[in-house]
Amino acid sequence: MTNSSLQERKVKAIARGQGNVYPVYVERAKNAELWDVEGNRYIDFGTGIAVCNTGHSHPKIVAAAKAQLDNFSHTCVMVNPYESAVELAEKLTEIAPGESDKKAVFVTTGAEAVENCVKIARAHTGRRGVIAFNGGFHGRTNLTMALTGKITPYKHQFGPFAGDVFHAPFPIDYHNISVKHSLDALNNLFKVDIAPCDVAAIIVEPVQGEGGFYAAPAEFLQALRSLCDDHGIVLIADEIQTGFGRTGKMFSFEHAGVEPDLITMAKGIAGGFPIAAVVGKSEIMDAPLPGGLGGTYGGSPVACVAALTVLDVIKEEGLVERAAQIGAIFNERLTALQAEHPQLIGEVRNQGAMIAIELVSNGDCEQANTALTQAIIAKAAKYGLILLACGFYGNVIRFLPALTISDELINEGLDQFVRLFDEAANC
Questions:
Q1: Quick one: DSSP state of residue 216?
Q2: What is the distance of C-alpha 133 from the center of its chain?
Q3: Cα angle value 220/224/228 (rounded, 5°)
Q4: Among 79, 340, 343, 392, which one has the highest count of C-beta atoms within 10 angstroms of its own C-beta?
Q5: Residue 398 phi/psi, 5° resolution?
C-alpha cells in the first residue's frame, strides 16, 4: 500500500470537489504526530483544522468512546435521550462566556450550528436580515455560503444563495481597515441596504479562520455588543475554530470581556468525534417551537461522552494556559524568521495557539505572495510537516498545533519549517 496508489483510487472514487491538501494517507496518529501508510512520520501543525486540540487519540477520550460503544451507539436524542447529552449541555452552558442563564442544542457540524443560530435569531426577533463580515467563513451549506465573505473556492458556481444577507468590512489593522471604518460601514448598511429594525443577527468570528487568522480588536467586539443592544439584534459568536482553549481562553470572546447572545461550538469540542452545538441565552434559545431544532445524528452519544472527556482533559492538563505558552514559542521563533526575511514575511500574529504568518512580496502588505505560500505547502510533507494555508488571497500559513504538544516537538517542527521556508524562498 502506497500513498500514490491510494491517491489514484481516491481520485477515481471521490468527487474532485472534496479535494485533499496532501497525498499523505494516515495509518495512525498519536498526540501531535502522524504516520502514513508508508511509515513516514509527520509533525502535525494542523490537527484536522483545529479539531484535535487534545491531540490525536488521547487515551482518556478513546477509552470513553469505547465504553459508550459497548452500551449503545445511537437512539436519537430527540427520541430517546441519554444522560451524557444532558450533562454535556449543562457543562457547555456553564463554561460559555457571561452570567446569563443559557441553554444548548446539539447538531452534527459547524455549518449546522451556524444555520441554527440564524433560525433561532429569526424566531426570537421576527426579523429577516443577517450581517456577516468580509473574509469570514461560516460553512459550505447554502445559507452559510451566503454568510461566508470569500468567493473562491467556497461560493464559486454554487449560487443563488439565501437572501437578506449583508456584508461589512472586518477590521484588520495590517491592511489599514480600522475599527472605525468597519463600524461606519455597518451604519452605512443601515442607511442603504437594511434598517436595523429588520436585522435579526450579526455573526462574527472573533478570530477569522479561513480569512487569515485576523483577531477582532476588543473594542470592535465591544462596539458590536453595544450596537446589538441598542437595536435588539442578536449577536452571534462563531467560535467553531477559536473555541475550547485554542486562543488562551476557553472561548475567544472572553478576551474582549463580551457576552454574545448565541455561540457556535464545534471542531475542538470532542477530540475528533462529530458533534456541534449552539449555546445561548435561554430566552433566545427557547424561541423556536418544539421540533424546530435538531437532527437525526445531533448529540451522538459517542460524541457526547468524548466531549465530556475533552472538557476534563482541558481542565486536568491546563490546556487553556498551555495554548498561551505554545503561542509564545511560535511567535518568538517566527518573529526571528521574519527578521531574516522582512521582504517576505509581512506579519506574524497569534492569539494563543492560533498562529499565522502572512507572506508578501517586497515587504508590501498589498502584494500577497500566494506563490510562495503554495510552494511551502507543497513541500511541507517532504520536511515531515502538516501545514495549512488560509487568507483572502491564500497567502497566510496557519499553525494549529495540538494543545498537548511538547516544547521539544514544537521546536523540532519549527526547525524543519525554517529549513522548508529557506528552500522555498530561494527557489
A1: P
A2: 15
A3: 175
A4: 392
A5: -110, 145
Q: List pLDDT tens digits, range 234-282.
A: 999 999 999 999 999 999 999 999 999 999 999 999 999 999 999 999 9
- Cell 446539539 belongs to 106
The single residue listed with the C-alpha cell 468570528 is 205
Q: Which helix (H) or strand (E) holds 359?
A: strand 354-361
- Mean pLDDT for the stretch of residues 393-404: 97
Letter for the amino acid at 263? I
All 3 cell numbers of residue 404? 498537548
* DSSP state string for 83-136: HHHHHHHHHHHHHSSSSS-EEEEEESSHHHHHHHHHHHHHHHH---EEEEETT-
Percentage, residues of the chain above pLDDT 90 = 96
Which secondary structure element, helix H or strand E, spans residue 200, and what is its range?
strand 199-204
HSE value, Cβ hemisphere, 13 Å, CA-based, for 114: 28
Average pLDDT rounded to a whole number, residues 84-98: 98
